[in-house]
Amino acid sequence: MRAWAGVVLAGLVLSGCGTAVAATGGGARWTATGGGQQAERTPRGGPTAGSRAEAAGLAKRLLARLPLPPGTVSAGKRSVPEGMRDLPGAPGGDWAIQTRLLVAPGQPDVVSAYLQRHHPRGASVTTGSSDMFGERTLDVNFEVRAPAGIQLAELGFQIQKLTSTTSLVYADAFVVWYPARSAAEHLSAPAFRSVTVTATLNGPAGQGKHAGRTFTQRAIIAKLVAVIDDLPAVPYYAVPCPLFNTYSLRFNPLRGYGASVTVESLSCVAASVTVGGRDQPPLWDSPPRLEPLALQLLGLRSEPGSHAEIQSQIRSQTGGGPRPGSRAEALAYGRHLLTLPVLPLGTRAAKRGQHVPTEISSPAPPFAKDLVSLTRPLVAPGTPAQVQAYLLAHAPKGAERSWGQMGRPGAPTAWDVGFFLPTPQEGLYLAQLEVTMAPAANRTSVVNETAYVIWFPTRSPAENLLNPAGYRSVTVTADVVYPHTREVTRALSGLTATRLLMFLGGQQAAPDDAPVSCPMRGAEFTLRFLPAKPRTPAVRVTTYGCWADDIWINGVRQPALWDMGTLHSMTVHLLGLPGWLR
Question: What pTM was computed for the model?
Answer without folding.
Answer: 0.51
